[in-house]
């Protein structure tokens, strides 16, 4: 076993607020430069670009975890991760159907771009991905577990679209074991403000929407294998996670 440097919350060109500079090879090249060894790609409400970015990660010898950043009915962002692509894909299908039927406005948000392995644009997603699912936080947590994934509320240290920003507390009955924090988060101040977080694991990620931010926030896990199962084991044994 050894420590691995991870960034488990990164956006691709699919996310409306991301630039086309976040192409698979550019993104993974930057992650490699930053020493990231395990990465999860987590676009807003869609896993449509996962396989293409996984291929690029393999080229750079970076372990890849399938992910998505779900926006719940309460407008809370939740990172959902999966080891198994088939289960992730099934989750993704149900998630897409659960999104409110609002069209993306490319002039305002930019295009929601799906790429092929040669980095050609194969299609754009018309339904707005910057939008809520009808699933509540509770439903999201249950759905992710139903498909053998792992979920944690994203960027709880910022107000918009975060669990603590929207609800102000951690619902005790949802078995939340970890929360995401931003690259800039002062974790000591956060723990002072919300002592309940002492019982949870903080996972720092970049939440990068542009190349320069990839790897700017990271977490190290002490792992047996470079997969989600091992990361969840490390989270359950808090000593095996460090954010500095
Ligand atoms: Zn978010
Ligand atoms: Zn994000």
Write up this protein.
With 244 residues, the chain is of the alpha/beta class. It has a single domain, classed as Alpha-Beta Barrel (TIM Barrel). The chain is 28% helix and 23% strand. The chain is globular and about 45 Å long. The mean pLDDT is 95. One zinc ion binds next to loops.
Q: What's the layout of helices and strands?
A:
Elements lengths: L1 E9 L13 H10 L4 E7 L5 H10 L3 E9 L5 E6 L2 H14 L7 H4 L3 E3 L5 E4 L12 H10 L3 E4 L9 H4 L11 E4 L5 H7 L7 E4 L14 E5 L4 H9 L4 E2 L2
Parallel strand pairs: 1-2, 2-3, 8-9
Antiparallel strand pairs: 1-10, 3-4, 4-7, 5-6, 10-11
Bound molecules: zinc ion (2 copies).
Supply database-style keywords.
seven-stranded mixed β-sheet; 28% helix; 8 helices; TIM Barrel; alpha/beta; binds zinc ion; globular; two-stranded antiparallel sheet; 244 residues
What is the strand arrangement across the widest sheet?
7-4-3-2-1-10-11
Name of the CATH first level = Alpha Beta
**Strand pairing plus helix content: what structural class?**
alpha/beta
Rg from Cα: 17 Å
Quick structural summary:
This protein is of the alpha/beta class and 244 residues long.
């Amino acid at each position: 076993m050894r420590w691995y440097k991870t960034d488990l919350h990164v956006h691709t060109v699919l996310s409306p607020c991301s630039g086309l500079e976040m192409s698979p090879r550019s993104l993974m090249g930057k992650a490699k430069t930053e020493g990231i060894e395990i990465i999860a790609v987590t676009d807003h409400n869609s896993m449509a670009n996962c396989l293409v970015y996984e291929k690029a990660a393999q080229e750079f010898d970076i372990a890849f975890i399938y992910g998505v950043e779900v926006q719940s009915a309460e407008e809370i962002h939740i990172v959902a991760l999966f080891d198994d692509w088939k289960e992730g894909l099934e989750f993704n299908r149900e998630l897409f159907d659960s999104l409110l039927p609002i069209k993306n406005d490319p002039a305002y948000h930019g295009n929601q771009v799906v790429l092929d392995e040669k980095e050609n644009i194969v299609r754009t997603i018309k339904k707005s991905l910057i939008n809520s699912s009808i699933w509540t936080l509770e439903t999201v947590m249950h759905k992710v577990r139903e498909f053998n994934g792992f979920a944690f509320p994203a960027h709880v240290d910022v107000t918009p679209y975060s669990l603590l920003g929207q609800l102000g507390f951690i619902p005790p009955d949802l078995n939340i074991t970890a929360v995401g924090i931003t690259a800039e988060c002062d974790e000591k101040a956060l723990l002072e403000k919300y002592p309940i977080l002492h019982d949870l694991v903080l996972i720092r990620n970049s939440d990068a929407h542009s190349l320069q931010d990839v790897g700017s926030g990271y977490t190290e896990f002490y792992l047996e294998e470079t997969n989600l199962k091992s990361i969840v084991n490390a989270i359950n044994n808090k000593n095996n996670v460090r954010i500095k």
